[in-house]
Amino acid sequence: MTAAALTSPAAASRTVTTVRSDAAGDLLDLLPARGGLSWVRRGEGLVGWGEAARLEVTGPRALADAAAWWDEYTAGLDVDDALGVPGSGPVLFGSIAFDPVAGTSVFVVPEVVVGRRDGVGWITAVGTAPTAPVPTALDDGPAPRLRYADGALDPASWCAAVAQAVQRIDAGELAKVVLARDLFVSSDVPLDPRRMLRRLAARFPDCWTFAVDGLLGATPELLLRRTGRRLSARVLAGTAPRGAGAEDERLARALLASPKDRAEHSLAVDSLVRALEPYCDTLDSPAEPQLLTLANVRHLATDVVGTQAARGRASGADLLELVGAVHPTAAVCGTPTPDAAALIGELEGMDRGRYAGPVGWLDATGDGEFGLALRCAELVGDDGARLFAGCGIVAGSDPAAELAETQSKFAAFQAALEG
User: Fold this and answer.
1) What's the rounded Cα separation, in Å, for the pair 316 and 323?
2) Are 90 and 79 in contact (CB under 8 A)?
3) Beta bridge partners of 219
4) Each residue of 297-330: pLDDT tens digit?
5) What number of other Cβ atoms are within 10 A of residue 220's Cβ?
6) Catalytic choice (221, 348, 378, 405)
7) Is 72 a catalytic residue?
8) Of these residues, 51, 111, 176, 405, which one is catalytic?
């Protein structure tokens, strides 16, 4: 069932204007105190604010309904876009539920979008003429006092759930399942999402810093990018902590050589490739993973690239259909997917909402980028947030080690909260 689209008066004019802008500075510095939208990596990407239109959707046809709504919305627009690059013109930000059938996915058309790609900047405005954006200042107030509380499962109970999952894997019921935890935080002062986003971007420049409807984070995993017929993805699975000096190098070598982590990574790559193959004329997946080094952890990473089919039904698949076809991968659910999803519902004890779901943007031409909502938190009111972290559980997984991995992943967002 699809919720009604909510439109603001700005959308009534149906005019969208994009102009080039050479304004310098950080895109994230332009965001307002509330309601900002973001998809930024290494200073490039998109930020937006205001709501020209909004869609909340759930049910078995959630992504198909969203795609049809976006097509109908853009078909009625009067667009003046001299740049014609991916992300210029009308843009739709989306945050999709981990389970789109049961959860609510949110799509927002901003009134204003500021973008930058390959050093070229632009401003898009709906209903009004684009004007030069002004950076927003942050007050240097006292550091907030934060209180943390366990989410659905305390650490001991979560470790017990991991142990049960390993038993089920050893019994041959499935090969992998991803189990996540949540952690609640409350503050004595209102939390400023702009400050958190800036800190995340500064600490994790190789991640995509995102914000959509109160869900914000820095994800290292690109679920799917579409530029014309070119498709690409970055698959991550297999994680190791960072160390100091020689210990850091030892941990890196151990991750590359780990049979457990290599097996987990192969399952994630294979699940993406299998889902994407029917839509592609060509699809290339390297045989060996690389190391992705972040401030707090390392991951095994594989970049997959392909060309969407030029003929047949697959040639007409839009980005949201492709996203729906590949999600959830083994990187966030497990394999086989139905068995892993059922076990998540049995053992995890929480509603993931939009955590680990696709998050990103698409434009009116069908280009766009969607990552997975990882290393993230969902704002709760003005002074609270719900943090998420998950781990891939396979044969040989140790509950204590997996718990430590979630703590490392929580730390990414905790640093943004605490400064």
Assistant:
1) 14
2) yes
3) 208
4) 899 999 999 999 998 888 899 999 999 999 999 9
5) 21
6) 221
7) no
8) 176
Radius of gyration of the chain (CA): 21
Tell me if 352 sits within 8 A of 336, measured CB to CB: no
Residue labelled with tokens 């014309």: 228
- Predicted TM-score (pTM) of this structure: 0.94
The SS3 assignment for 278 reads helix
Q: How far apart are CA 276 and CA 361, in angstroms?
A: 19
Q: Return d(Cα 274, Cα 344) in angstroms, integer.
A: 22
Distance CA 126, CA 107 (A): 16
The sign of the dihedral angle between the CA atoms of 61, 65, 66, 67 is positive
Known catalytic membership, residue 176: yes
Domains and CATH numbers, the chain: 6-126 (no CATH), 146-418 (3.60.120.10)
Average pLDDT for the chain: 92
Of 343, 400, 346, which Cα lies nearest the Cα of 175?
Answer: 343
What is the number of other CB atoms lying within 10 angstroms of the CB of residue 167?
10
d(CA 282, CA 249): 36
